[in-house]
Design a protein that fits this description.
single chain; about 425 residues; alpha/beta; Aspartate Aminotransferase, domain 2; binds pyridoxal-5'-phosphate
C-alpha cells in the first residue's frame, strides 16, 4: 500500500459523486433539478448584503494576516452576545467559545478531543458525516437506525441500551438530512439519560459528552421551536459541545466562519487541534461577521426573507409529493420543520425501467430519477443507513422555486414509465 491504512479506506463524499453526475448531465444540456448538495446557489440565496459589504471593508482595512488560532476576540464576543440574546445561553468569549474555518473542523476536533481509538460513541442514522468522523477517530460506533414514524429523530429509549461506557453522543437538530427536529420532551428525556449516566460514573472516568450540532437552528418554520440541551438542563453545561456557525444560517457556506462552544475543559483542547490543522477562518471574514452579528435589524430582515424563501421551496416540494401520494404512487414526504431539507420516499424497489432494468437499491432509483425525471436526490444510505431504505434527502438550496415546480410533473412521468 502506498498510503496509510486510514487514507486507503477513507470514503469520500457520496453526495459529491451524485452531484458530479448531475453536473455532467447539465453540461450536456439536460434540464435537471439539482436537489443534492446541502449548499446554496448564490444567485438564488445570496449572503446578507451587509455581511458582503463588511467583508469588503475588512479587506480594505488589510485584515489579511494570521488571525488568532481560536478566532478574533471581537467575533468571539459577538458570538457570545448573539447566543445570549437569541438562545439565553451564557458562554464566555475568552474560554468557552472558539472560531474555525466553518463548522467541520469543530466537529472533527470535538471527536479528536474526546474519542480515543476503540471508545464507544453513539449517533443516529441517517445523520451527517458522523460515520466519517467515527472512522477517522477509529471509534467503536453504535449507529442507531431511526424511523420515519418518529421523524427520523432518536429517542431516549433508542439510546438508553448503549450509554454504558459511551463517551460521545452526537446529536443534530434541525437534522441534516431530514429537516426534522427534536421535540422538547424527546430532547429532555435524552438529557436526563445523559445526566443519570454521568452521575453513575466514577471520578476520573471519561464522561458521556453530547456533541450538539445546531447549524440550522435559525432556520425553523411555523410553530417548530428549536431546543438545545443546556437551555433545557443547565446542569449539562460541562458535557455539551455545540457546533454552530454562519454557513447555513446566512447562506454563507463559502465564507467559512463557524463557531463552537462548550466547557473550557474540552474547548481548550479543541483549540490547539484546530490550530495545528490551520483550520481557522479567514481573518477578514471573521472581522466582518463580528460586525454583522451586532447589526440586529439587518440580521432580522435577512432571516425573515431567507426563511420565507426556503420555506416556500420546501412547501412546494412537500405539496408535490403529497399530491403524487394521493394519486396512488408509493411516495411520501415528512412535513418540513427546519433546515433546507425535505425527507422524501420514492419506493420503487423491484420496478422495471423501460430499458428492462430492475431497480433494486435506493441508488438505482436515484440514478433512474436523475436520468428520466431530471430530479436528483441523495439516498439516506449516504447518511449511514442501509441501501434498503427508499428514503432520500431533497435539498432546496441550489434550486429555484420554478425549478422545483417544473420537476414534479417530470417526476410523475418518470414514475408512470416504471412497471
Ligand atoms: C449538520 C451540519 N453540520 C455541519 C455542517 C458543516 O458546515 P460547514 O460548511 O460550516 O463546515 C453541515 C454542512 O452540510 C451540516 O449539515
Amino acid at each position: 500500500m502506498l498510503v496509510s491504512n486510514l487514507a486507503e479506506n477513507l470514503i469520500g463524499s457520496e453526495i459529491l459523486k451524485i452531484a458530479a453526475q448531475v453536473n455532467a448531465m447539465k453540461a450536456g444540456g439536460a434540464q435537471v433539478s439539482n436537489l443534492t448538495v446541502g449548499d446554496f446557489d448564490p444567485s438564488i440565496f445570496p449572503i446578507p448584503e451587509a455581511l458582503q459589504e463588511e467583508i469588503a471593508i475588512a479587506y480594505a482595512a488589510k485584515h489579511t494576516n494570521y488571525p488568532p488560532a481560536d478566532g478574533v476576540m471581537a467575533l468571539r464576543q459577538s458570538v457570545s452576545a448573539f447566543l445570549k440574546e437569541h438562545l439565553g445561553l451564557s458562554y464566555s468569549a475568552d474560554k468557552e467559545i472558539m472560531i474555525a474555518g466553518g463548522s467541520r473542523p469543530l466537529i472533527y476536533s470535538t471527536y479528536l478531543a474526546i474519542v480515543d481509538p476503540g471508545d464507544k460513541i453513539i449517533f443516529p442514522t441517517p445523520s451527517w458525516n458522523n460515520n466519517h468522523y467515527a472512522y477517522l477517530t477509529q471509534a467503536n460506533a453504535v449507529m442507531l437506525e431511526t424511523k420515519p414514524e418518529h421523524n427520523y429523530m432518536p429517542s431516549a429509549a433508542d439510546i438508553a441500551p448503549h450509554v454504558k461506557g459511551a463517551v460521545l453522543l452526537a446529536l443534530c437538530s434541525p437534522l441534516n438530512p431530514t429537516g426534522t427536529m427534536f421535540s422538547k420532551q424527546d430532547l429532555e428525556e435524552i438529557c436526563d439519560l445523559v445526566i443519570a449516566e454521568n452521575k453513575s460514573r466514577k471520578e476520573g472516568e471519561k464522561p458521556l459528552y453530547i456533541m450538539f450540532d445546531q447549524m440550522y437552528w435559525m432556520l425553523t418554520f411555523g410553530d417548530h421551536k428549536h431546543y438545545d440541551p443546556v437551555s433545557l438542563r443547565p446542569e449539562l453545561k460541562d458535557y455539551v459541545i455545540y457546533i454552530d456557525g454562519s454557513s447555513k444560517a446566512f447562506a454563507a457556506t463559502g465564507v467559512r466562519v463557524g463557531w463552537g462552544f462548550g466547557p473550557e475543559s474540552v474547548i481548550s483542547k479543541m483549540k490547539p487541534i484546530v490550530g495545528h490543522m490551520g483550520a481557522w477562518a479567514p481573518k477578514a471574514e471573521q472581522v466582518a461577521t463580528s460586525v454583522f452579528l451586532q447589526q440586529k435589524e439587518e440580521v432580522a430582515t435577512y432571516m425573515s426573507n431567507f426563511k420565507e424563501k426556503v420555506q416556500k421551496s420546501l412547501s412546494a416540494l412537500h405539496t408535490g409529493f403529497q399530491h403524487l401520494k394521493n394519486e396512488g404512487f408509493d411516495v411520501d414526504s415528512i412535513e418540513p420543520m427546519g433546515a433546507i431539507y425535505l425527507t422524501v420516499k420514492v419506493n420503487m424497489k423491484g420496478k422495471t425501467t423501460p430499458e428492462g432494468k430492475v431497480l433494486s437499491t435506493a441508488s438505482d432509483v436515484n440514478f433512474y430519477l436523475i436520468k428520466e425525471a431530471g430530479m436528483a436526490f441523495v439516498p439516506f444510505s449516504a447518511f449511514g443507513t442501509t441501501e434498503d431504505e427508499f428514503w432520500f434527502r431533497a435539498s432546496i438550496g441550489a434550486a429555484s422555486l420554478a425549478d422545483i415546480e417544473a420537476g414534479i410533473p417530470r417526476l410523475k412521468a418518470a414514475l408512470q414509465k416504471l412497471s
